Amino acid sequence: KTCNRILRNMEASLTARDRVGIQDFVLLDAYTSESAFLDNLRKRFHENLIYTYIGTLLVSVNPYKDLDIYSKKQMDTYMGVNFFELPPHIYALADNVFRTMQSEFNNHFILISGESGSGKTEASKKILQFYAVSCPSTKLLNNVRDRLLLSNPVLEAFGNAKTLRNDNSSRFGKYMDIQFDHQGGAVGGHILSYLLEKSRVVHQNHGERNFHIFYQLVEGGEEDLLRWLGLERNCKHYSYLVQGDCAKVSSINDKSDWKTVRKALSVIEFSESDIEHLFGIIASVLHMGNIKFDTDSRGYAALSNNQEMHWVSKLLGIPNQVLQHGLTHRKIEAKTEEVFSPFSVDHAVFARDALAKAIYGRTFNWLVSKINESLANKDSSRKTVIGLLDIYGFEVFSVNSFEQFCINYCNEKLQQLFIQLTLKSEQEEYEVEGIEWEPVPYFNNKIICDLVEEKFRGIISLLDEECLRPGEATDLTFLEKMEEKMGGHPHFVTHKLADQKTRKTLERGDFRLLHYAGEVTYCVVGFLDKNNDLLYRYGKEVMRQSKNAIIRHCFPYSEPDTKKRPETVVTQFKNSLLGLAEILMSKEPWYVRCIKPNEAKQPAHFDDVLVRHQMKYLGLMEHLRVRRAGFAYRRKYDIFLQRWYKPLCPDTWPNWKGTAAEGVQRLVKHLGYKSDEYKMGRTKIFIRHPRTLFATEDSLQVCKHQLATRIQAKYKGYRMKEDYLKQREAATKIENCWRGLLARKERERRAWAVKVIKKFIKGFMTRHQPACVDNSEYLAYVRQNYLTRLKDNLPKTVLEKDRWLTPPPIMLEVSQILKKIYIRHMVRQYVRGITPQRKAQLLLKVQTSSMFKGKKENYPFSVCRPFVDTRISPGDINIKILQIIQREHIKYSVPVVKYDRNGFRPRVRQLIFTQEAAYLTEEAKIKQRIDYSSLKGVSVSNLSDNFLILHVLCDDIKKKGDLVLQCEYLFEALTKLSVIANKQNSISVVQGSVRFDIQPGREGFVDFKSGQESMVYRAKNGHLMVVSLTVKLHPEHYITGCSPNVLCFVGIYKNKVKMKIPPMLDSDALQESQIVN
User: Where does ATP bind (predicted)?
Assistant: First the structure.
């Protein structure tokens, strides 16, 4: 048994790689294959192993569920441990960065990147939490640690929002420096923010929200605070909060988050005055969004809501008349004169929104500065730094605008930096170890960066030029200028410049860039407005009159107020990126690449197409190729020898007396490494191929079991001999005492047993007599025993009610009462669980059953396929078609293949059922309209094909005849048609062939037969021949692949839906198969 167990354990350790994948992609044999990379990532994800290395780069896949891998115990496990000694983890990366910083006394940064919803923010939090626990602790250091940790919820509240892809999406880039003293204690920090999405303040897409802080204030703010701010506890009352139509989100608890933010502001040392002014600004933005403008008699803007203006004036501390004048007038300076020009309503709305964005954006910058003051380190001695860069990931939406252009430009720059730093670190390691460096081929995305940022010719320069030039500059003139300047660039294309095939995928206002991660099409509409982001100078002057201390700080008198236009948004962003690049180039890089496995945020679901796309734009294959360009594996000599492989060589086991390098040389010679498989560096061994390392690892596993067996044998022999001598001596002493004790206990036990048995027999004999002293205990036992057995054998469903446990005579009446109560309980439970949607689905299935059950061969396969409202979304139907038939209300639509009446050529079409008629459409054309009144009937065969023939009343030669269609969702479409058009009795299931009218006086035929292979062709007799596979039905076909909710229906009787329950359903399935009223 011991030998078998050892062999099983050994086999498990050798095959573990096949089951859970390789924990370092560098050791992947097929390292150039995307499929092998994806397969390894998928294996680990399904085993809840969400972290994988590419050398020192960490790949993290969002599990969308809680994993027990972030406890204090886990942190302790990874502290001070060699990077590759334990399974991959974000704590391992954080610990390695920290120890490298301490040992080398230099600065580092961790770049966390990935798509929205991939877990970047959570990864940043985990790293901060690890440093909070692992760093030395004093009262001063704990204070700094708490401020670092609590700065996160504050910045998330003011800078994060719900988007379509992520309920807590960072709408700004964040770089945080954590400063450490020489002992490793966190003594300070500094935060830089990039490109806050200010446009979200005044506009949100459908399904998205404004920044969290607005909802937290309205939902969680104290009653006194809301009364002082003039707010109501209802987000729907504020124009800036309802545009996305999702103020409430199930995954967000605004009230709880509000408490966290209030606590965090206190810990970060915001004064009560600062907090009061801060929330006053937030409330003023909400009130400002509710300010409306009317047109006065002269056609200019006039305020129509003085109550909202009153609150804005009060909260910002600006006189009401001054504020009203600032929102409805613009100051024009002409030499020595100043003229106030009134706004139109459109200009007034623009000015209001621009002011709201400016107030929020500058307040956010003030907030970051205030947090930095709290985190500032007062000690001037030299500190080492670890930076955390949580930056937006590459974004590709259905419509990409200015924000996506900036974000993707940022990712291009970071990818360029990433490859440069990776190549640099690899080359430096080879040079230090004395290994010859071989140049690595890779895609240099400098051509794309130059396309965007090149001086005078890049997109940014052209965009700024259009924003600043006089005259009527529009988004389209900007597009025309790009076409003129960049017409021949291989990474730039527009509708005008594209070939005929590409032009079909581009609108006239689009341009497409071929990024390193793939093609992205940008809509040029709004580029100029978003890039300008102008706030009228008079608006600034009005803000400077504020009594709110934060507003005065954000709009200082010292701010230059020249007539020169300020820098555009994209230029500011470009300069910020250049500054960030300089910061990062001065530090040692580490990387965390975050991946989201699916769009639906579902645990255990891995979408190969989505993950492969992220692999590409995160540059993972590029990084792997760089790491594998030379040697796949490298380790220091002492670690390779002492911690791992010295048992494999008799000369190095158990103790090696020489240097570690000599020991490794002796070891690899014994293992038979070839000269081209490894190189000996100054301090490390370099192994070229993963297979060499895996062969060594497998040999080590075998050797471990052999060593363990020998050690066990020696140790067990020694312990067994010692234990035997002690036990023999003890057994002699105990035996005498124990035998006497057992004899006495046995006598007492037998006397008790005789008494109990007598009483039980007497009770059994008198069990049918009225209750008395002799049988009362026996009858109580009978009752208890029956109820106990009944509890464990209760029917699982109503259909098992006949399996009720047979009661003893004394419990007969009680058993009947319990049975009735329990059955009523089960029926009530089931009925309460039935939803209106499910009942409607069941009724449709009943309709289908009445038409096709027992008539058409492939009907049983349709039972488990739930019906949907429509198979073609409104977005996939041509807009012209929608405009034509919108008054008739589309009830259902489905893709079909239409066969020509002459020649039977197949055509892909869309079949649309409205309230009044059925339409057969092709793109923007309606090929045929069939009024339900002219629909004579529908014919389908009794075989397993998906053909249907719509017979149309054709009394005019100009009218089109019957339709021959093929539909994948045949049963669903016909059921919908029968309900919508009330044609239940017009659907016929026929055998052999179907005649149809081509036009009055001309007829055609469709022949149906079964065969070994499905095919559709025109027969020699001119008929359309449809050959379908013969279907052999088994009972399990009714439920194969179906949940217990999907059953086979037999009809409706007395307003009750009755369902046929297949006999092989288990008890869990039967529990749902009740009769539904």
Answer: 114-121
Q: How far apart are CA 788 and CA 808, in angstroms?
A: 13
Catalytic choice (60, 113, 151, 166): 166
Q: Long-range contact list for 654-659, CB < 8 A, 24+ apart?
A: none
Query: Has residue 55 been placed in a domain?
Result: no
Residues 437 and 491 in one domain: yes
Task: CATH number of the domain at 687, please.
Answer: 3.30.70.1590
Give the count of domains, the chain.
3
Domain boundary residue, one of 698, 725, 748: 748
Q: Are residues 588 and 717 in the same domain?
A: no
pLDDT mean values, one per 10 residues, the chain (1077 residues): 41 53 82 88 91 89 91 90 81 89 85 84 89 77 80 91 85 87 84 85 89 93 92 92 88 92 89 92 92 85 83 90 85 70 86 89 92 82 83 79 86 79 70 69 77 87 83 85 87 88 88 85 88 73 87 79 68 85 84 90 90 84 73 67 66 71 73 70 70 66 77 89 91 91 92 90 85 85 91 86 86 91 89 84 89 91 90 91 89 94 90 93 91 92 93 82 93 93 90 88 90 90 90 52 36 36 35 36
Q: Which of 121, 134, 914, 939 is catalytic?
A: 121
Known binding residue 114? Answer is yes
Residues near 254 by beta carbon (within 8 Å), at least 6 away in sequence: 212, 215, 216, 218, 219, 220
Q: Is 119 annotated as a binding residue?
A: yes
Segment (H or E) for 918: strand 917-922
Task: Provide the residue range defining the domain that includes 1013.
Answer: 836-1029
Return the SS3 of 338: strand
- Specify the pLDDT at position 145: 78
Q: Look up tokens 């006239």; give the residue.
A: 508
User: Are residues 587 and 501 both part of a single domain?
Assistant: yes
Annotated active-site residue 558? The verdict is no
Q: Does 558 belong to an annotated binding site?
A: no
**Strand-strand pairing, 947-952 and 169-170:** unpaired
> Pick the catalytic residue: 156, 219, 395, 1072?
395
Q: Is residue 978 part of a domain?
A: yes
**Burial of 464 by CB count in 10 Å (0-12 exposed, 13-18 middle, 19+ buried)?**
buried
3-class DSSP assignment, residue 1046: coil
Gyration radius of the chain's alpha carbons: 39
Q: Judge if 642 and 588 occupy the same domain.
A: no
Examine the domain organization and report whether 916 and 1018 are in the same domain: yes
What is residue 562's predicted lDDT score, i.e. its pLDDT? 55
- Is 166 one of the catalytic residues? yes
* Boundary of a domain, candidates 718, 748, 778: 748
927 and 988 together in one domain:
yes
Catalytic site includes residue 121: yes
384 has catalytic annotation = no
Is residue 116 part of the annotated active site? The answer reads yes
Which of 188, 289, 393, 458 does the annotation list as catalytic?
A: 393
Q: Would residue 782 count as lying in a domain? A: no
Give the CATH number, domain containing residue 492.
1.20.58.530
Q: Which of 52, 116, 260, 946 is catalytic?
A: 116
Residue 118 labelled as part of a binding site: yes
Task: Please state, in angstroms and as integers, the Cα–Cα distance from residue 931 to each residue in 34, 880, 914, 924, 934, following that order.
Answer: 53, 20, 10, 20, 5
Q: Return the amino acid letter for 500.
A: Q
Catalytic residue selected from 170, 199, 568, 815:
170
Is 393 among the residues known to form the active site? Answer: yes
The closest of 1031, 980, 985, 1025 to 1007, measured between CA atoms, is 1025
Please indicate, yes or no, whether residues 719 and 660 belong to a single structural domain of this protein: yes
Both tokens of 871, joined, read: 């198979």
| SS3 at position 797 | coil
Establish if 462 belongs to a structural domain. Answer: yes
Tell me, what CATH number does 1014's domain have? 2.30.29.30
Cα separation, 460 vs 574, whole angstroms: 9
CA distance 479 to 527: 10
Is residue 588 located within the same domain as residue 661? Answer: no
Q: For the beta carbon of residue 283, count every other beta carbon within 10 angstroms.
A: 26
Instruction: Tell me the C-alpha distance between 939 and 930, whole Å.
Output: 16
